[in-house]
Predict the structure.
Amino acid sequence: MRSQERVLTDTAGPEAIDAILRPFMRLAGELAVRFEAPGSTPAAPGDGPRLTRDILVGGRFLGRIVAEGPAVRARPVAASLESIALAIEHLAGAGALPDATAAADARSGIEAELALSRLQQRSIVSLQPPDVAGYDLAGYYEPAREVGGDFFELFRLRRRGRPLGMVIADVTGKGIAAALLMAFARPVIHSALQAAPGPADALRRTNRILVDELHTALFITALVGRLDVGTGRLSIANAGHEPPLLIPGDGGPISTIEEGGPMLGMFSPLDLTEIQVELRPGDKLLLYTDGVTDALTSTGERFGKERMLATVEAARASSATDLVHALSSAVSGFGEGVLPADDVTIVAVGRH
């Protein structure tokens, strides 16, 4: 049998712990995270706020996670550090197993927990759009890691005519911190769009909560829309997100809807312009996150906007479902064999 200290050194030693902490080492210049092993000389504390979490297994002290910087005040960061500490404690706790199986069991345990988190997040990110007579709706979501920071939603609003609400958003950063902020922001945006008179006001309300109450060091790009399904009139507000594509059903040129404002969570008040668009019969609207255009090959070549537009042009006569499939397949094939650099989310709304 190995002691728990030995398991932490071998299974969750410097390289393993660095890999766990790497996404949180530097967060927008606001957060620094390190691991202090027992007996090591602690680093001199900085002047800013500080958060520590001891690693304890069976009452035995095995080390400490130290986070410093303004971002430690953010609830998602504190929750993320707690999750990291629990993961390291799980690794150390595997020391009760025989030598031959300790490391394997620790890895499988963490992988199982991440797999469960992935399933739970997919239940949050609704991939199944509602049925709307006269429209074809489709969405695709693939996180770069076990959990991600993209999210989208298509849902009917509880008001006269049951308009269609659209949300697509991307949390800056990746991994657990981004996923936690996504889980927090999604219901906030959903509720704001239900209650607000329009998409721009919904984003302003969401931004106010992020800036005044959450104080997060991460930001969110978000595009919110409200579609009158009877007339095809669409109101859009864009907070720093990728501009959507309007694909005319008459074969006219594909255009981008460029108007927008700053990202959510940066500062308040949020200055946004609400854009009015008409979806005519045969038209499609395509929303996406930058994981589409930023997809890379092994040589570092980007998928890019031109390749995206060429893919959409080739599939423009297809249904919204087939259009999303064509673009997602093109992105996957382009970066085959390379770990994705970012989450990929694609949404299409087509009017029959």
